[in-house]
Amino acid sequence: MLELIDVTKTYESPGGKEDVAVLKNITLKLESGRSLVIVGPSGSGKSTLLNIIGALDRPTSGRVLFEGRELAELDDVELARIRNRRIGFVFQLHHLLPQCTVLENVLIPTLVDKAGVSRQEARGRAVELLRRVGLEDLLLHRPGELSGGQRQRVALVRALINRPALLLADEPTGSLDKAGSENIADLLAEVNRTEGVTLIVVTHSAGLAERIGHVKELSNGVLTDRSRG
Q1: 189: enclosing H helix or E strand
Q2: The model scores a pTM over 0.85
Q3: Into which CATH architecture does domain 2-225 fall?
């Protein structure tokens, strides 16, 4: 479902010095329905890698294939359609709209693509997903009335509303306490199993990594299997 071949990302260095390579010849293959955690310190390029996988950024060189299609060959309209229909995103900050209710926030991705499910079907799925994460009594609440963990659960449901094939989570527990972090980690593992969604999580949290699945480490721009020694 996802394959990266010799993906490199460089940025121009200030002052005209040698370009800085954030990612160096990253090669990765992930089958449908599997889960992967990428760990590494802050500034190691984890978010850059996730943005490239999620079609939010393009590599300087190398190839990214998603469901058999090379992303570099697609125009902006096709990439936007893939991001909305086939990829779900969860970030460290929930990015919920403060003026909208929980239910309205969850349904926002369904409003973008008119070729998706009907409004009634979308609402039914939203209510069911919110029930599964324990928020069925908060449908009409606004983000400011929720705890940090509750807001992140809403963001997770919003990412799942269009039944994506791939779910990308960028430091999803970074702003939460221990209990909230464990709850989100368990939810991510559950949706990977019950929704059949392929899951990639980037984090610096060893605890989160242990609860999800296979772990790789990104260090100095190179992606390797994490040593268990």
Answers
A1: helix 178-194
A2: yes
A3: 3-Layer(aba) Sandwich (3.40)
